[in-house]
Design brief:
Elements lengths: L5 H12 L5 H8 L3 H13 L19 E9 L4 H12 L4 E6 L6 E7 L2 H12 L5 E8 L13
Antiparallel strand pairs: 1-3, 1-4, 2-3
Helix pairs in contact: 1-2, 2-3
């Protein structure tokens, strides 16, 4: 675990809110000199605290209005079974998130598609026929009431 000081935390909060901030603007927001701020950002990147820059996209705006949480149960828990399944889901663009879970289900996937039919096609022709998968349970998202990628620092 990386030890964060108060300025590190301010930098992280500011960049989570707006990753496009210039070093000068960021330094002003966190009350630091520009050179010190630049060094801290580079250090946070080098230690892996700050990852690559991306832009968020409104899925509905580009026609991906179906959002599904899908529970998966695998046939067994052998390392090669899990590796095969992880390779499969890593290669599927419609799978946005994958979580290995404890409890009754082995994985929880977040899947997006442009229609229920497209999701059904993914489910029936790809997911359920994968040799690692025993069963799946789909839960269609009715509304997204909160979504954030900002961590509480």
């Amino acid at each position: 675990m990386i030890e964060l000081d108060a300025v590190d935390r301010k930098i992280i909060r500011a960049l989570q809110a707006d990753a496009n901030l210039s070093t000068q603007s960021l330094a002003e927001k966190v009350g630091s000199s520009q050179s010190s701020c630049w060094r801290k950002v580079r250090s946070l990147e080098e230690t892996g605290v700050l990852g690559k820059l991306t832009r968020s996209v409104d899925a509905r705006a580009i026609g991906l209005s179906v959002n599904v949480m899908c529970n998966i149960r695998l046939k067994n828990h052998q390392p090669d079974t899990r590796a095969d399944f992880q390779k499969f889901i890593n290669g599927r663009d419609e799978v946005l998130e994958s979580f290995a879970m404890s409890g009754d289900w082995d994985y929880l996937l977040r899947v997006v598609s442009d229609s229920v039919e497209a999701y059904q096609n993914f489910l029936m022709r790809s997911l359920l026929v994968h040799p690692s998968v025993v069963t799946a349970s789909s839960h269609f998202v009715l509304s997204v009431d909160k979504f954030t990628t900002a961590l509480p620092v």
